[in-house]
Q: What sequence folds into this?
C-alpha cells in the first residue's frame, strides 16, 4: 500500500467497508444479464459520502497534544494522521505522486506535496477548502 493510500485510509476510514458492502450485495450471476439470460441494466455506482476534510482534521488537531498546522505543512499533516513524516517518506510520496522537482529542495517539495495531497483528497470525495487546492 502506498503512502497516499495510507493517508486516504486515515481520512476515509469507511471506504473499504463501503466497497466490501457493495461487493457483498453484488449479484452472483454475470453482470449485465439476469439469471434467465436476458439483458439487464447495469447497476448504478454507489457514491461514497463526502468527507469534510477540514472539520475532520481540525477535530483531530484539537485532540492532539502537539500544535500541528496541517493546513500548510505536509509534515504536520502526516504527524496528525500518525504516519511517518520523515524526509525519506516524503520523498517516496513525491515519487508516488510524480514530483519532477529537486527533492533536495525539501521546502519546495513539501509545498507541492501538501497541495497535491489536498487535490487528491478533493478528487476522491473529500470536501477541501478552496485555498488548499489548485
A:
Amino acid at each position: 500500500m502506498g503512502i497516499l493510500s495510507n493517508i486516504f485510509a486515515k481520512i476515509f476510514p469507511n471506504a473499504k467497508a463501503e466497497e466490501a458492502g457493495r461487493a457483498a450485495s453484488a449479484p452472483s450471476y454475470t453482470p449485465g444479464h439476469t439469471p434467465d439470460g436476458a439483458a439487464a441494466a447495469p447497476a448504478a455506482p454507489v457514491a461514497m459520502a463526502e468527507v469534510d476534510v477540514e472539520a475532520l482534521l481540525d477535530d483531530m488537531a484539537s485532540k492532539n497534544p502537539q500544535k500541528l498546522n496541517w493546513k500548510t505543512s505536509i509534515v504536520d499533516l502526516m504527524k496528525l494522521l500518525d504516519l511517518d513524516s520523515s524526509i525519506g517518506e516524503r520523498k517516496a510520496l513525491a515519487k508516488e505522486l510524480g514530483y519532477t522537482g529537486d527533492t533536495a529542495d525539501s521546502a519546495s517539495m513539501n509545498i507541492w506535496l501538501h497541495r497535491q495531497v489536498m487535490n487528491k483528497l478533493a478528487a476522491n470525495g473529500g470536501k477541501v477548502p478552496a485555498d488548499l487546492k489548485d
Notes: The chain has a mean pLDDT of 82.
